[in-house]
Amino acid sequence: MEDTLIKRPSDCSVLVVDDEAMLCNLLADTLQDSYRVTSCQSGRQALRLIEENDFDLVIADLKLKDIPGIDVLRSAKEKDDFTELMVITGYASLESASRAIMLGVSAYLTKPLSLADLILQVEKAIATRIFHLKSVSLMQQSDTFAPHIKDHLNNMTSLYHFARKLMLSLELPEITRVILHEINEKMGSTFSILAMNYLNYAEIAAMPRTGEISETAIRNIITANWDNTFNIFDKNMFEQGDIPFRIFKGRRGQTASMENLRPVGVQLSLMGQTIGSLLIFRDKNIASTPEENQFLYVFTSFVSSVIEHGYIDLQAKLQARTDGLTGVSNHRSFHETLAREISRADRNKSQCALVIIDIDDFKAINDCYGHLVGDAVIKDLCGRITSMVRKGDTFARQGGEEFSLILPETSLDGAITIAERVCLRVNSLPFTYAQTKVPYTISLGLSIYNGQKPRAKDALIADADKALYTSKKTGKNRVSVC
Questions:
Q1: How far apart are CA 13 and CA 27, in angstroms?
Q2: Distance of alpha carbon 377 from its chain centroid, rounded?
Q3: Exposed, middle or buried: residue 89 (CB in 10 Å: 0-12, 13-18, 19+)?
Q4: CA distances from 351 to 341, 343, 471 (A)
């Protein structure tokens, strides 16, 4: 084994890139006692340094003044795939996080930064780097190993890289993207499709190895391979377009031909229950080896558990934000959304509207028909209103028989029009329960938030409450404004 490949942490080189001079110097000073640290304050300078030096770890801000920080990170990976990457940024988004994860970033830290957390993450990254270098050294000696041992080591390395990326991927879109990217690279496939049907969630994701692929092409391919792989879905739902698609772009490059491809499909299962399918397509002249088939089974066994946790996490988050009886947003989600829309109105100097809705004489409905009918009336109201609201509007249950409607980017006249339509929709047709007609009406209170004249969220809610009180006192089944 070559000693040059086995480093001590103090031998490792770290590049810090941040266009904030004070922060850049602070990070360098923090790390220089433990590592060989180089720092710079521009992306282009970082690219030159990466070309001229071998860095074990590159730490970069995603939002540099001259070029995107992601380009700096990509350059480091293109030179040495085992280089560790870390992001420190005050500019975080789902897209930038996904791109960073795909590059194999080991930590994604946001400003303001805890130096103690930074030091810990750097220690982990350097330990991982040394682990990689030892693995590379071992692989360089693999000429003395039997071919099946070399293949096994390669598969272990692939699964290790894959597991590291998934540990950073907390949201299902990133999990799905990483799975498709990894299997395309490992199997040399032209494209791959991941179909999932678990916990009442059904969706299909696809990614070519390079370039792009259309949903129409994917639909045709799925139809052609339905019986073997995709019968986990209700075919009528698929044909009617009720199963959502997620199409990812592949690596940069020309989209490969879809002709003369051989499909290889593997089911994803948990405790004997099928939760999805993975289908890869590659040149029909390339036959799968026993080792590749074995890797596919191990790979899908691994990702099945990851997908399960992703959907459980999604379900838990959804339940935390939705009302258990009706499925609409709950009180907590309402306040989060209203605060967000107020902030947007402040930034854009625009308007948004808040409508508070209450079922008239709801106690009498419960007393006359019973609580089961009362719950059915609440569900009916939610169904009527959610079918009317625009994309981007938020309808929430505050509790009991009280609801709220948040209307972003809406003027007073527009809000009144929407509120009156809702009121008319409810009182125009009685609710029927077990062949019994249960007529009911609602009262609405409306208030407008003006981003040019900011005020507290509680003041907006209080005004809408006052307007609702006016509707109740002046005859019910109407809209009032405050």
A1: 14
A2: 34
A3: buried
A4: 9, 11, 23
d(CA 107, CA 435): 60
Q: For the whole prediction, is pTM greater than 0.90?
A: no
Quote the Cα angle for 232-233-237, to 5°: 175
122 contacts 133 by C-beta, under 8 angstroms: no
Contact between 345 and 351 under an 8 Å Cβ cutoff? The reply is yes
Q: Per-10-residue mean pLDDT for the chain, 482 residues long?
A: 63 94 92 95 95 94 88 90 83 55 71 84 86 71 65 67 60 84 90 91 93 91 84 86 91 86 87 85 86 81 81 78 87 90 91 95 92 92 91 91 94 94 91 89 96 93 96 95 92
At 156, list the tokens.
């272990």
pLDDT score for 3:
43
**Do 17 and 87 form a contact (C-beta atoms < 8 A)?**
no
* Domains delineated in the chain: 3-140 (3.40.50.2300), 143-318 (3.30.450.40), 331-481 (3.30.70.270)
What is the edge-to-edge ordering of all strands in the sheet holding 57-60?
36-40, 13-17, 57-60, 84-89, 107-110
